Amino acid sequence: MTGSAPSPGPAGRHAFVTLVTNADYALGATALCRSIRATGSSADIVVLHTGGVGRFALEPLGDLGCRLIETAHLPLSDAFNARHARRTVHAVAPFSKGRKPDFHTPLDNFCKLRLWQLTDYERCIFIDADALVLKPVDRFFDYPEFSAAPNVYQSLADFHRLNSGVFVAAPSLSTFEAMLDRLDAPGAFWPRTDQAFLQAFFPDWHGLPVTMNMLQYVWFNLPDLWDWQAIHILHYQYEKPWEKDHPRAKALKPLIDLWHDVLHGRPIADPASPPNPEKG
User: How many angstroms separate the CA atoms of 107 and 73, rounded?
Assistant: First the structure.
């Protein structure tokens, strides 16, 4: 990490961690942090932020009591960085099931691994900045490393793959160093960046309930799996709820409206009230 401006300092042994790489994700993180605090959690919230984020965009997170830690890209080889540039990654492994915004930068994703440097904490729950916490999740701090939910949003056949938008980890400098060695091995290529790497590094990962990382496309692809009363974390994994040219805005309107209500501190209706989409 290049430096830090903690606000406040570590208060306990647990922390929620997110990553902010530009002003868009800072806005997302603001909604995320509001949602965490609304559950009554007293755990620290750590926001890792890169040089792509301006001071003005970070101010709301500081006002929410988040611990802001500036970080840099990982010290990786030029060859690794070339293999994982946006154009290269999207050409080799294009997103065919949804659209990533123009600000999506694959190399930024690897900064998630900086979590393992946060040795002030015994256990962390990482949550992507494009997510909301709808129910208390502090009990999952007791889950082992490495715990993640399955990458299910199109077919139940995907339960064998993890989604790295939410995971439980134990910070450790030795683990971090081992990750760097494995990550930048000669010729290594991770088509889904941190997600592909973490599944390879933790092949025996522990399963979190799918409700701990409910991907937004479940809303219309697998409606029988959608249960508002059970969802703990809602993850807007492709198009983002703050995008003005959102191509799925009509299909996902109840989810997008919920995100805006949380961001602006408006009263949230009973989450069971939005009707599930009809099948087909």
Answer: 8
Interval 105-132: pLDDT, tens? 778 999 999 999 999 999 999 999 999 9
Q: Which of 201, 188, 192 is nearest to 77 (CA)?
A: 188
Does residue 280 lie in a domain region?
A: no
Parallel/antiparallel/unpaired status of strands 147-150 and 44-49: unpaired
Beta partners for residue 67, in sequence order: 46
Q: Which residues form the domain of 225?
A: 14-263
CATH of the domain at 195: 3.90.550.10
Number of domains comprising the chain: 1
Q: In this structure, is residue 6 part of a structural domain?
A: no
Show Cβ contacts of residue 151 under 8 Å, excluding neighbours closer than 6 positions: 158, 161, 162, 163, 195, 215
With 0.85 as the threshold, say if the pTM is over it: yes
Give one word for 179, left, alpha or beta, with left for phi > 0 and alpha for psi -120 to 50.
alpha
- Residue 23 in domain: yes
Per-residue pLDDT tens over the stretch 12-39:
799 999 999 999 999 999 999 999 999 9
The partner residues of 215 in beta bridges, in order of sequence, read: 235
In a domain, 5, yes or no: no
Which is nearest to 147 in space by CA: 217, 212, 231, 191? 212
